[in-house]
Design goal:
Keywords: Membrane, Transmembrane, Transmembrane helix. The chain crosses the membrane at residues 7-27. This is Late embryogenesis abundant protein LEA-2 subgroup domain-containing protein. It comes from marine metagenome. The chain is an alpha+beta fold. The protein has a single domain (32-163), classed as Immunoglobulin-like (Sandwich). The chain is built from three helices and seven strands. The protein has a four-stranded antiparallel sheet, with no helix packed on it. A three-stranded antiparallel sheet has the order 1-2-5. It starts with 5 loop residues before the first helix and ends with a strand. The mean pLDDT is 90.
Length: 164
């Protein structure tokens, strides 16, 4: 009697690939629900105007909305801030150094504000906008960037644009 040998090995390897493929397929079923999340610019506030070093510290507050039915976290929001149509700087909100279990959970239907700070330095290119912000005049802010949605199975990067 001849032992089964190679055929058993091939069947076992085929089963392993089928299981791994099934896991990837199962994980991909959540992706459309996760893409229902949204990031909106809620407000921009002046924290400090430093006239000696010619810079302004701003606090940008984003409203993160989860319209889907899956729980997610937002470990990163990177953005470029515009004032009156001019780019005034880039910054980011990040909790990537915190384990996923310690981050804020965005449960289905939840809206939560996340804040970030940005330092604006005075340059000739943005002199008029810088002075308007420093003097407390009305400035129309907009933002353009990317945010990351993370779950136990997924890591999705999404682009967003928002204005006040």
């Amino acid at each position: 009697m001849k032992p089964p040998g190679k055929i058993i090995l091939y069947v076992a390897i085929g089963c392993l690939f089928a299981i791994m493929g099934g896991m990837v397929y199962y994980a991909s079923l959540d992706e459309p629900e996760l893409k229902k999340g949204d990031v909106v610019l809620l407000s921009v506030e002046v924290l400090d105007v430093n006239t000696i070093e010619n810079h302004i510290n701003l606090e940008t507050i984003f409203l993160v909305k989860n319209h889907g039915n899956k729980t997610m976290t937002i470990p990163m929001i990177s953005y470029e801030l515009f004032a009156n149509g001019k780019s005034i700087g880039t910054s980011s909100y990040s909790t990537e150094d915190i384990p996923m279990t310690g981050r804020a959970l965005f449960l289905p239907g939840l809206e939560m504000p996340l804040d970030s700070s940005i330092k604006i330095k005075l340059t000739e290119k943005i002199n008029d906008v810088y002075n308007a912000i420093a003097n407390g005049e009305y400035v129309e802010y907009s933002v353009k960037g990317m945010y990351t949605i993370e779950t136990a199975w997924h890591l999705i990067e999404m682009e967003f644009e928002s204005s006040l």
